[in-house]
Amino acid sequence: MGVPQATQSLGAGPDGLTQAATLLRAGEVVAFPTETVYGLGAMATSSEAVAKIFAAKNRPQFNPLIAHVASVDRAEALIELPPRGRALARALWPGPLTLVGTLRPGKGISDLARAGLPTLALRVPDHPVAQALLRAVGKPLAAPSANLSGQLSPTRPGDVLEGLDGRIAAVLDGGTCTVGLESTVIGFEDGDLIMLRPGGVTVERIYEITGQRPRPPSGKGIVAPGQLTSHYAPRSPIQLNVAVPDPDGPSIGFGAVGGPINLSPTGDLAEAATNLYAALRTADGMAQGRPIQVAPIPSEGLGLAINDRLARAAAPRE
Ligand code: TXA
Ligand code: MG
């Protein structure tokens, strides 16, 4: 349990940014917007500050955190990447991509942030408020999604407060996240790309840049800790691939398959990704014990990550 505290809501103007940076530099935990989802930030160089993230979220400490920096240069100063990793970094950062590389020595990144691993997951977010905050703090920020462990990721400041009000120092308001899904997490084995989590960058795009499709981990090299099966879960049960939903139920449509909530009436996967977590929250609020029925979503492009999150939301709970 974290220490109960009043959570400040800060605007993203110069005053709010200065206050957020001051809190972070003092070792506090502050939620901030990125283009994927809201992150729960703390100085990645301080184990005391990072411990507050785990406490606020009730996150198991074997699950390592992503560190965020403002530029590709700062990222490459922290981790070593094989050639395909450097190609992805140059083409896709800033953006919804996380690369897991070997931590260079003497960088002062907290062991706790990495769950003791020799590697570090890094991301350069493409959101003006995240960029301004990282530059104001001047140090890498460790930041998981700003939700209680196992619950839906937040894409709006109100979502952050729903789970974490009274548990964190502040939330910085940057409006609604545009991508709406967490970053794609890529690791490496012998220079080959390993898919640790599908997300906001598609496999198709990665293939265009590197000529290689990421494969699953072999089990011998890079590990994917914390990929618990049930995750991103609303309270209500979920039924997937329902082509004819109950018209009175809390269903989530896509394209021509309608419902009270539709991820994208035109069948646009980017729009569906942006709306996914808010739609699950709305459906959860309407459900009253009834199952949330979700329309079929094609598994191409961003549909791969959407279906990954839906499968986890529908998995049996621990
Ligand atoms: O879009 C995102 O990635 C958001 C925003 C805030 O940046 N962050 C996020 O963090 O989703 P989190 O903690 O919810 O997910 C981090 C993922 C986990 O699956 C974790 O296991 C993996 O990254 N990860 C972190 N460090 C790792 C490492 N050294 N090796 C392998 N996987 C790692
Ligand atoms: Mg998360």
Helical fraction equals 25-40%
**N-to-C order of helices and strands:** EHEEHEHEHEEHEHEEEHEEEHEH
- Rg is 19 Å
Structural class: alpha/beta
Proportion in β-strands:
15-25%
**End-to-end separation:** 20 Å
Envelope shape: globular
Number of helices: 9
User: What is the average of the pLDDT values?
Assistant: 95
Strands, total number? 15
Low-confidence stretches: none
Largest sheet: 11 strands, mixed
Ligands, deduplicated:
threonylcarbamoyladenylate, magnesium ion
Polypeptide structure, described:
With 318 residues, the protein is α/β, with parallel strands linked by helices. The chain has nine helices and 15 strands. The strands form three sheets. Strands 1, 2, 3, 4, 5, 6, 7, 8, 9, 10 and 11 form an eleven-stranded mixed sheet that branches. A hairpin with a 6-residue loop joins β2 and β3. The mean pLDDT is 95. It binds threonylcarbamoyladenylate and magnesium ion. Magnesium ion (MG) binds next to loops.
Topology readout:
Blueprint: E1 8-10, H1 14-25, E2 30-32, E3 39-43, H2 47-57, E4 66-68, H3 72-78, E5 79-80, H4 83-92, E6 97-103, E7 119-123, H5 128-137, E8 141-142, H6 157-164, E9 170-172, E10 184-189, E11 192-197, H7 203-210, E12 238-239, E13 252-253, E14 261-262, H8 269-287, E15 292-293, H9 303-314
Parallel strand pairs: 1-9, 2-9, 4-7, 6-10, 12-15, 13-14
Antiparallel strand pairs: 2-3, 3-8, 4-8, 5-6, 6-7, 10-11
Helix pairs in contact: 1-5
Magnesium ion (MG) binds at residues 144-145, 153.
